[in-house]
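Input/output pair, single chain:
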Amino acid sequence: MSNVFGEPGYATLPDGRRLHHVSQGEGRPVVVLESGLGASRVEWGLVMPLVAERTRVVAYDRAGFGRSDRDPHRRDLERMVQDLGHLLDHLGEESYILAGHSLGGPIIRSYAAAHPGRVAGLVLIDQAVEDLDFYYWRSMRAMTMAVQSVTIGLARLGVKVVPAELRRILALFPQEMREEALAEMTSVPELRTTRAEYAALSDGFARLRASGAVLPPVPVTVISGMLTTNKVERRVRAELVAAHRKLAEAQPLGRHVLAERSGHMVPQDEPGLVAEEILKLAG
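Output:
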């Protein structure tokens, strides 16, 4: 088994499923990375070595991605938060620094609100913000689900659809890392899991918005990508950045950081910035 992304391991969950994780480095506090929608540990390939220079860092495959078992349960926000909690229990630390990209932001915020004593700090990297209306647009949801279904159908026929933005991101990785990431991200099981996560997204966000969940009084850094790469981003980028700023300002130890050379994919476009902000919380 390749360990190009780190030393591999598995956490066995109460229902018997196994979550695959990789780790690099030594020391405390331990940093755990939560990926965005449809992404696995591979999205952290450029960030992990930088964080590992100072402390231990762990990334994992959510259920159905990479080398983790699939989940027969609906892949809603609450289920993903529950799985993260089981992974943290398996790792055995008293508290963690959690960093989440995109959908990973609401996942780690939800965990921190429910388990404040186990979180020493949060880094939210161009995170999704459940208060914004565009996550609930029916037209966007219908279009996205249709595209995902077509992509899955083509993959079953052996045709790999690699969007231009994904090709650009993969080009930033070393070759061995790139090949492993491409093979996983274009596989039928991963594409199906991506669709399953997206199908439950708006319902989970609506429940999170209604919950009024409060973050613990720990350092919270919110990183916003500032560039736009497509028409949809141009429509929502300013609104998203404003929501990031509002969240940071609402935290007693909040900071808002602008990733000037990045769009949404900050962990690949500016891995040094992401690692630097994580390590600021590590002390």
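The chain has one domain: 7-282. The mean pLDDT is 95.
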